[in-house]
Design a protein that fits this description.
The protein is α/β, with parallel strands linked by helices. The protein is built from 13 helices and 24 strands. An eight-stranded mixed sheet has the order 15-14-11-16-19-20-22-23, with helices on both faces. Strands 3-2-1-6-7-8 form a six-stranded parallel sheet, with helices on both faces. Strands 4-5 form a two-stranded antiparallel sheet. Strand 1, helix 1 and strand 2 form a beta-alpha-beta unit. Bound molecules: cytidine-5'-triphosphate (CTP). Cytidine-5'-triphosphate binds next to helix 11 and strand 19.
């Protein structure tokens, strides 16, 4: 699927630079042409020789090369996509500021192709407000972020900030090249509209090692964000922890963890939104107290006291402006239609998307879904089992229809 694609890989100084070797192998195996630019710091983690052997191209590190000048402008123009992986906190900061003190930055600033980046850093650096601001800036430039993953970090801590696995980066590139490019879209009925979408699970900590969550992969909401973007909307995607992410260029991802984070992001972005789709599987309850040390097992049983989270959708429904269109989801196991209609009316929605776990291939973690749409005018539309991308298109078509009604 990447046959003939020209990939310009920027490797910056992070322990994850070792994964660049595997990433290049996968790219070359798919038939992509790969050229690599490294920072000097990246060379401390993996050698240019390794990456040039695997990419079958000379690897560039500095602006001067044996008294000749490396033409960073032409490199940026050569590529179909510039992929910065790993993107260290330092490199992200320089990109956000437009600094140009090494070849990678010069190439980045000259690149006329789409830019994707796969951040890699320790969890605290990842959550630092400076990093968050830099990411937001980069997304506002139209760049796409490949979601970070959770797991063991170089510091020995376990948390968010790991670079996406090379296989997941390849997956992202497949979707990047498969998605309709902006400008290539002939029909953009949602041009000028701002859409707010939530997707994925929320994670509610119990203590430093345990949490309450659910099986949501975020794929349905992400597909809706991409479909709204393909229809011309500018999209903000409030995304709970998942390794998947959007591919469309006009989707800005706002990563969140807990139901409270999701609530805050939704409230902050709601006033500007024309269309809101709440596809996230938000925790209804969270531990009343988050214990700051690992809970030791002592007694035979244990009771965890939970408290209700905010019902985000209900809050949005209660504060809905006359021109805002609000869509919710209803995942049920029984009395499906009754519960879905109850949510439609009680949460003041314009449309609700019902999916039931009783349908084979529907709901969490599948690549397919089977939905029935109920709108505020009493219209009911049942669809067969389809890919989540196709389901997303059906939902967006129904949104457009409701907007024009
Ligand atoms: N939702 C929300 N905030 C919550 C819980 C749910 O915004 N704290 C949203 C979901 O994103 C979904 C809709 O409300 O769009 C319905 O969620 P669902 O879990 O099906 O229903 P609940 O209202 O939580 O009711 P119940 O769990 O009792 O079925």
């Amino acid at each position: 699927m990447l046959q003939g694609k020209k990939i310009l890989l920027g490797v910056s100084g992070s322990i994850a630079a070792y994964k660049a070797a595997h990433l290049i192998r996968l790219l070359v195996k798919e038939g992509a042409q790969v050229k690599v630019v490294m920072t000097a710091a990246a060379c401390d983690f993996i050698t240019p020789l390794t990456l040039s052997t695997l990419s079958k191209n000379e690897v560039l590190v500095s602006i001067n090369n044996n008294q000749s000048w490396n033409n960073h402008v032409m490199l940026g123009r050569w590529a179909d996509v510039m992929l910065i992986a790993p993107a260290s906190a330092n490199t992200l900061a320089k990109m956000a500021q437009g600094l140009c003190d090494n070849l990678l930055q010069a190439v980045y600033l000259s690149a006329t192709c789409p830019v994707c980046f796969a951040p890699a850093m320790d969890e605290d650096m990842w959550h630092h407000p400076a990093t968050r601001n830099n990411i937001e800036k980069l997304l506002s430039y139209g760049h796409r972020q490949i979601p970070v993953e959770s797991g063991e970090l170089a510091s020995g801590l376990v948390g968010e900030g790991r670079m996406a696995e090379p296989e997941h980066i390849i997956d992202f590139l497949h979707r990047h090249f498969a998605a309709p490019r902006s400008g290539g879209q002939t029909s953009q009925p949602l041009k000028g509209k701002l859409a707010l979408v939530t997707a994925g699970p929320t994670v509610e900590p119990i203590d430093p090692v345990r949490f309450i969550s659910n099986y949501s992969s975020g794929k349905m909401g992400i597909a809706i964000a991409d479909a709204l973007a393909a229809a011309g909307a500018t999209v903000k995607l409030v995304l709970g922890p998942t390794r998947f992410g959007p591919t469309a260029p006009n989707v800005e991802t706002i990563p969140v963890k807990t139901a409270a984070d999701m609530f805050n992001s939704c409230i902050a972005n709601y006033p500007m939104a024309d269309i809101v789709v709440m596809a996230a599987a938000v925790a209804d309850y969270r531990p009343k107290v988050i214990v700051d040390r690992k809970i030791k097992k002592e007694d035979e049983g244990m009771t965890l006291e939970l408290e209700k989270t905010h019902d985000i959708l209900r809050t949005l429904g209660n504060n809905k402006g006359t021109d805002q269109l609000l869509v919710g989801f209803s995942l049920e196991t029984n009395n499906e239609k009754e519960y879905a209609l109850k949510k439609l009316h009680e949460k003041n929605l314009d449309m609700i998307v019902l999916n039931t776990l009783n349908d084979e291939g529907a709901g969490f973690n599948h690549d397919t879904n089977k939905v029935t749409l109920f709108d505020r005018n009493g219209k009911e539309t049942a669809f067969p089992l389809k890919s989540k991308q196709e389901v997303a298109k059906d939902i967006v078509s129904a949104i457009i229809e409701l907007q024009n009604a």
